[in-house]
Amino acid sequence: MPETFSKKLEKAFNTSGQLCVGIDPHEELLDESGLPQSPEGLRSFSLTLLDELTGTVSIIKPQVSFFERFGSAGFKVLEDLCSEASARGLLVIADAKRGDIGTTMTAYAQAWLGKSAPFLVDALTVSPYLGVGSLAPAVSIASERGKGLFVLCATSNPEGSVLQNSVNEGISVARQVADEVASLNQVSAQSKTRFGTAGLVIGATVDLNDFGLSSLNANDAINSSAILAPGFGYQGARLSDARRIFGRNADNVIYTISRSALRDGLYSVQSAVAADQRELSKALSE
């Protein structure tokens, strides 16, 4: 049995802290970096960013769509990026937001988490909005392979709040997702670890009260679920507010930045991210 995602995540936290950098090579960033809108530009951007991040953070999150837009050539860049990052000891979370039912969900899980998966990643983001139970094949494969899942729970986009804030029998949809994920972790757990197989995606800019998640704390039922929190930096949330946003559960959060890491340019990411690391470390120590 390979080292589990939980153990890898704990090691990443202890080695370089809880900051994660998204690798999001969208059109504007390629242009700003003076790179062509081509697979070659994509490769140059992604591997340069990886070089800048190596030794500064232990977790990266490639956004799959920005590679997929170049077709098979883009996927080849993504394969190479994930493989190289893994070889350097980084934890790789593929932000693909996959979700389906039955054999289709199984196929998605095999593509990203299976033994012969072309993409060498440690975890995958998935969507529960065909029902959390529809993710069971992915949970099973992830558990067997020592991989992780991050289930969309409370997202920061305004369109999502209409659904996720909806209340059924006094419980919000987001809260139901969180509780069901906690149940999945209890069912799939094979050993006592800090985190279960499945974590949650909770946007850093959302109001937890609005989503029925105000009780989020270290004694809550979802405390076995690691939290992937996008939205820091360019989207408005501040790393200095980490403890205020997530309270006692702040030590279980992966704090994600992406575009703000490039605020001083592609070739100055290392110094920018090091400053963010210090900001986050100070916030979590308070």
Write up what this structure looks like.
The protein is of the alpha/beta class. The protein has one domain: Aldolase class I (TIM Barrel, Alpha-Beta Barrel), CATH 3.20.20. Helix content is 42%, strand content 16%. It is built from eleven helices and ten strands. The protein has helices spanning 5-16, 27-32, 39-53, 65-68, 71-87, 102-113, 136-145, 158-164, 173-188, 242-246, 269-285; strands spanning 19-23, 59-62, 91-98, 123-126, 148-154, 167-168, 171-172, 198-202, 227-229, 253-257. Strand 9, helix 10 (242-246) and strand 10 (253-257) form a beta-alpha-beta unit. Helix 3 runs parallel beside helix 5 (71-87). The longest helix is centred in the N-terminal third of the chain and has 17 residues, at 71-87. It starts with a helix and ends with a helix.
- Order of strands, main sheet, comes to 1-2-3-4-5-8-9-10
CATH topology: TIM Barrel
CATH superfamily: Aldolase class I
Separate helix tally: 11
Total beta-strand segments: 10
Helix share, percent: 40-55%
What structural class is derived from the secondary structure elements? alpha/beta
Stretches with pLDDT under 50, minimum 5 residues = none
Percent strand equals: 15-25%
Short description:
With 286 residues, the protein is α/β, with parallel strands linked by helices.
